[in-house]
Amino acid sequence: MEFLRLTPTYILLFIIFWSLSLWFFWRFLDWQYSMKRFSKSFNYRFAKQSFVFRNISFVIWSILLLIALLWPLWQIWNQSKWASSNVIFLVDLSKSMDAIDAKHDDLNISRLDKAKMLISDFVAKHKENTYALVWFAWDSIIISPFTWDTDQFLTYVSWLNSNIIPLGWSDLNKALNFSLSLIWSDRNWNVLLFSNWPEDLTENADTDSITKKYSKIEYKIFSIWVWTQKWSYIPAGVNFLGNPTFKLYNWEKVITKQNSDELIKIANSFDWKYMNWTESSDIENINSDLLSIKTWLKEIERKSNDIWYYFILGAFMFFVLWYFTPYKKRLWKK
């Protein structure tokens, strides 16, 4: 859970608090012993009313200090179930995504099927978010506007196939502009891009125009690259003999191997978070890095700190009252 991020600090404060509480409790017992001793002395007499007031002050400042230390944790724990993010899944449907070089349980599957599985697993685990689905190749299509209905959304995901958009290749600039145009500026947004990024686009990615155009919108893009380090051909179907055929360009088979260094370079130029689909732990941890979750945590922490100061101030005031309130008075000899 997200509130566990702040736990180490507050656990330390909690330990300090109870250490102080045990020390003051020991002092309290010592004062009770002193009360009996002073009550028998002809020079001192126990002031019962002051002693009661002193004990009440001790209890109040202890409770206020405890609340001050645990308040941020309670706030985050109580409201974490309401934290959500707005996520746009931007999925590449170019023919190269049909290359069967991804893995699932030691079975070979296509890159597109792998992307669909990653999306379905993510949505099923984080139903608190709102999701939108955009397909792209040479053109871009929004198939699902933002929705909380995860069941219907997963139905849309299951429809994904490379034949939906007839034109091949991929125009990522157009896809990003289309996706970000769905965003309004008063919210926090995240774009999860699933693509193998054709090599011919690595030099044509117009990062400057996109970042300038949407500079007033708070968004974050995660790049989940579905690609392979092996040489592979793009399947196009089967011939009349039942043998597989492959996509041709100038009568040559199109090779789908990608350059990971170039992909990372492009991701860095956009200030994206680069991920490889083979690293399942990275995919599973995306939710904790989504923009609105981080913003929400900072806001909760800020509000908690504001209230925290008042509790600390109140605890200090009652501590002063407790410390300086006498529980005995001196009887001077005549």
Automatic annotation (TrEMBL):
Recite the UniProt keywords alphabetically: Membrane, Transmembrane, Transmembrane helix
Domain of life, per the record?
Bacteria
Output the InterPro entries linked to this UniProt entry: VWF_A, vWFA_dom_sf
Q: Which residue ranges does UniProt annotate as crossing the membrane?
A: 6-30, 51-74, 307-325
> In what residue span(s) does the VWFA domain sit?
87-189
- Give a Pfam family name: VWA_2
Q: Does the keyword Membrane apply?
A: yes
Name recorded for this polypeptide: von Willebrand factor type A protein
